[in-house]
Amino acid sequence: MLVKMIEKFQKNAESLSVPDIMPLLTAKGHPQEELFEKARKVRREVNQDDVVIRGVIEISNYCRKNCDYCAMRATNNKLVRYTLEAQDIIGLAGKIKKAGINIVFLQGGQNPGNDNVLGQVIPIIRNELGLDVVLCLGERTKETYKKFFLLGASSYILKFETSDPILYNRITHSQLEKRLQCIEWIRESGMKFGTGNIVGLPGQSLESLANDILLGVRINPDFISASPFIPNSSTPLQNYPKGSADLTLNTIAILRIIIKTPLIPSVSALESVFSEGQTAGLNAGANVITVNFTPKNFQDIYWIYSKKRFVVSIDHALRSVEHAGLQVRKRFTNLRVLK
Ligand code: 5AD
Question: Which of 51, 93, 104, 302 would be a feasible disulfide site paired with 58, CB 3.0-4.6 Å?
Fold first, then answer.
């Protein structure tokens, strides 16, 4: 019955409405299993079953924004700040290549102060190491996005976080409209584009989450994610409950079924919410896992999600892929084989 409903959706994605999405978003037990099964079927049909592994380097924890969920917010003066040197980033990218991973994901706070380093490292990682460069560096100018593309970056991730402009403004102290404008600029730059939401933000309703899915469908990105909210110490939201794993997994499955082809990460925050969370994400239709290559001393002060966040190793990524009964994508087969 649920599958029939989904099939109707797939034929007419533009006409989807919040009440259409609600029963899928809240599915539990058998209907939820049906939803995940359908998501896996769609992933197989569009040839997206093989899992993409990315290597992330967290280049800097300086940030000009002040999002209430993030401990790297500008006004958090308890945090020791760092920016990696160009030569260190290049060395880490070499390590990623050596591990057999062909995608270097450079993530950092929103800070034009990083541009000098980025101008040095992107062309080297792209042209000399021959790796794909994916960026996640926040809201920047139209010219900067174009510059990143011309330097050699292939993709950029900027999550919309929530589709609700009032909630967005309350939690990030900035305008959703600006975020959506940046999304347009990224697309115009020539880079591929990724986006996504946070599930379980304080004050977020189920209707709002259904609207996030509709916004994701409307944007039609190359990658899309759903991540549970993680209460982060030394933030104004530290005492709120974490986001629901079921709502996050259902969001992943619905996005896979409707948008079909995008890369969908099974994020590390899922593993923080429950053990085997990333395997569950793959079982719900995701097909990307990001392995962390930030040196340990900097990892410890990159306070994304939480101070005690789950840090993904190659072994953990491969185990999650194996537990989900999947394989890594062919171009990554030189990854260390599981014992
Ligand atoms: N909970 C969930 N997601 C978070 N992010 C940052 N902090 C949190 C948190 N506490 C996500 C945001 C941001 C991305 C880089 O990390 O979606 O865009």
Answer: 302
186-206 tens-digit pLDDT: 999 999 999 999 999 999 999
Closest to 135 (Cα-Cα) out of 97, 104, 93, 170: 104
Pocket lining: 304 vs ligand 1, CB cutoff 6 Å: yes
- Global pTM reads 0.95
What pLDDT is attached to residue 334? 57
Instruction: Tell me which residue has tokens 């609207």.
Output: 211
Name the residue of 270, 304, 306 to mutate for ligand 1: max ligand atoms within 8 A of Cβ.
304
Mean pLDDT on 85-105? 97
CA distance 317 to 281: 12
Statement: residue 338 has pLDDT above 60: no
Percent of the residues in the chain that have a pLDDT greater than 90, as a whole number: 88
Whether the predicted pLDDT of 337 surpasses 50: no
Cβ–ligand 1 distance for 269 under 6 Å, the answer yes
Among protein residues, the one whose CA lies closest to atom 4 of ligand 1: 305
Interatomic CA distance for residues 216 and 226, integer angstroms: 10
Average pLDDT over residues 226-238: 95
Gap between the Cα atoms of 54 and 74, Å rounded: 28
Q: What tokens does 46 get?
A: 């569009």
Please state, in angstroms and rounded to a whole number, the distance separating the CA atoms of residues 214 and 207.
11
Mutation test residue for ligand 1: of 227, 233, 238, 290, the one with most atoms within 8 Å of CB = 227
What three-state secondary structure class fits 255? helix
- Half-sphere CA count of 210, side-chain side, radius 13 A: 15
The C-alpha atoms of residue 195 and residue 178 are separated, in whole angstroms, by 14
- One-letter amino acid identity for 265? P
**CA 229–ligand 1 middle distance (angstroms):** 7
Q: CB–CB of 43/285 below 8 Å?
A: yes
